[in-house]
Write a structure and sequence with these properties.
Order of helices and strands: EHHHHHEHEEEHEHEEH
Shape: globular
Structural class: alpha/beta
Oligomer: single chain
Bound molecules: 2'-O-acetyl adenosine-5-diphosphoribose
Number of strands: 8
Number of helices: 9
Strand order of the largest sheet: 3-2-1-6-7-8
Distance between the termini: 14 Å
Helix content: 25-40%
Amino acid sequence: MKPRNIVILTGAGVSAESGVPTFRGPDGLWEGHHIEAVATPQAFRRDPLLVQRFYDARRAALGKVVPNAAHLALARLDAEWRGELLLVTQNVDDLHERGGSQRLLHMHGELQRALCTACGTAPAWTGALSDDPPCPRCGAARLRPDIVWFGEMPYHMDEIEMAIGRCDLFVSIGTSGAVYPAAGFVTQAQRAGARTLEINLDPSAGTPLFDEARHGPAGTQVPKWVDEMLG
Ligand code: OAD
């Protein structure tokens, strides 16, 4: 039976062919860095400059990358799919929106947004934060990257869990399944009666949990799957 309501979860693998490094693995971002040194609230309290510079460099690097065939195919599915569709990304880059996706939630925040720890506003931000610029709303020089760090609550969880509860197809693309709560979505979707599909370069820790797994680069596998869905 053809599905009607789809939830798609993406991870760093969907942006790999655009030249954005993934987190784990030999060339992964976490290879030269300790996660605890840059991606926790404690790290930010201990050495804010180090953390700001790490994210400033990643924000600046976004100017040198463009969406790949996987982002574009997911945007086409979004535009043409008549049922419900929600793209939930763990990625903090803006390649899904630049590719054209609209029904999209960033559960781990966005590189191109700052978060004011004084007034709570989250302004769009494309420049550096390491030089302590003032918040455009309250003027305090207390902006941090709007990134969900380890130990913090991911964004939009109510909306995501509601969509998973209603979906009849759950697709996970380019994620190692190492980080919760995203790694648990496949089980939640199955409990809701959905069919589950993994698309990833290699088998992941979560592969045995899925009804079907397709392995290969997202830039090839995702357009093929989208053609099938719309065909
Ligand atoms: P990972 O780096 O853990 O995993 C990336 C996955 O993508 C791996 O399973 C790779 O095999 C796969 N992959 C690599 N290249 C690919 C390609 N061309 N096509 C398809 N798959 C490919 O990244 P995430 O699972 O996204 O969180 O990591 C989850 C979270 O951990 C991130 O959002 C980040 C990180 O710590 C925070 O910073 C809060």
